[in-house]
Each structure stands twice: as structure tokens, then as C-alpha cells.
Amino acid sequence: MRITAMHPEHQFCFIVDRPFSKKGLFPEICGDAVLLVDPYSVDAIADAMQVVSFDDGLRQALVVREQKQKKLFSWEKTAGLLWQAVERAFP
User: Fold this and answer.
1) Is the C or the N end of the chain the one with fewer CB within 10 Å?
2) 28: DSSP letter
3) Where are the beta strands (DSSP E) in the chain?
4) pTM
5) Which residues contact 43 (CB under 8 A, 6 or more apart)?
């Protein structure tokens, strides 16, 4: 396991097997579908890795949350928002 540095949208199918950094964009994108840890705390990382490895109930809860969270993001939605911004910028 590792703290991921990959974009969360690309990681959703692997999200429950590792902790994510509570820095940057991860809390906003991942929501409560992941364990968020201080990326500079070895103890916090180790604790989260152990919990997610051995707590089957938590892991299953994270899978359910992941399914809900990933519905908030799609390339189609992103493209639509980008196109709306372009249309506002160049009427």
C-alpha cells in the first residue's frame, strides 16, 4: 500500500486499499470514500494502512461510499463545464 499520487478519478477502482493524503485535492474529490491521512506522518500512514487492511467492515463501507462518490465525477460533466466556460468567455 501507498499514499497515492495519482489523480483520484483514475484511482476510484483501487481507492479502498490505500490511504490518501489530506493535502491538496484529495479531500474534495474523494470525500468520505477514503481514509485521509497526514502525508508527513509515518505513524498516521501506518495506522491507516493497518486499519484498511484488516477492518473488513470499514473496507466494505468505503466501497459503498466510493460508488456514490465516483458518480459525482465524469469526463462528460467536465467537458460540459469546460464548454460552458468557453461559451461565456467567447459569446
Assistant:
1) C
2) H
3) 20-21, 36-37
4) 0.66
5) none
